[in-house]
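Why do we care about 3D structure at all? Because function follows from shape, and shape follows, mostly, from sequence. That is the central idea of this module. The next example makes it concrete: a single protein chain, its amino acid sequence, and then its structure expressed as tokens.
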Amino acid sequence: MKNIPRIFIDKNIAPGIKIPLEREMVHYLTRVMRTDKCLVFGGGVEYNATLDDDNKNLIIGDQTSHNDPSNNITLMFAPIKHTDDLINMATQMGVARLIPVITARTVAHHINWDRMQKIAVEAAEQSNRNSVPEILKPVKINELDLSNIVFADERAAYGADTSDNFDTSAVLIGPEGGFSDEEFSALDKAGARGIGLGKTILRAETAAIVALSKIIK
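And the structure:
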């Protein structure tokens, strides 16, 4: 099958309307991909589209039959050095929303969230999604409702009991240094359920993907 470019459109789209394109996107379509056709998506739907004769606008065509493979999972995570990799992979996994969570051991406090949004858009375009995950504003861990979540529990690597018997749409990943004792206590007291990720201690971005793979149905 021919590889048709996919473009995220952050506005309402419908058959027959014209969408102005930035010069960089026109160059990508005409010079890099050498085509005047593409797929555009947003809000869970996908449409065929064609460049107009002036190569300045996209003319939206019919809606495709492609269903959005995304899910309704929320990934809460402590910002890390490789937050860009985490967001890229989580977007490919189909998460609906991403919530940065400031924990006691969070060290990455100066994340360029505009850049993270662009990474999410690019990952959605490449992974055949019809939507882009929402990236919410950072919150402190003590501001979260921890009662109905699962979390990556590194204590499992030291023999702590964990369970894979859960039904939730929210998962929490800690920072590179792990959760503090106080945070573990708060999670346990709230009834949050720990996910065991094996006998080794994983990098935070790896832990996020392993945890997501356990809760995605």
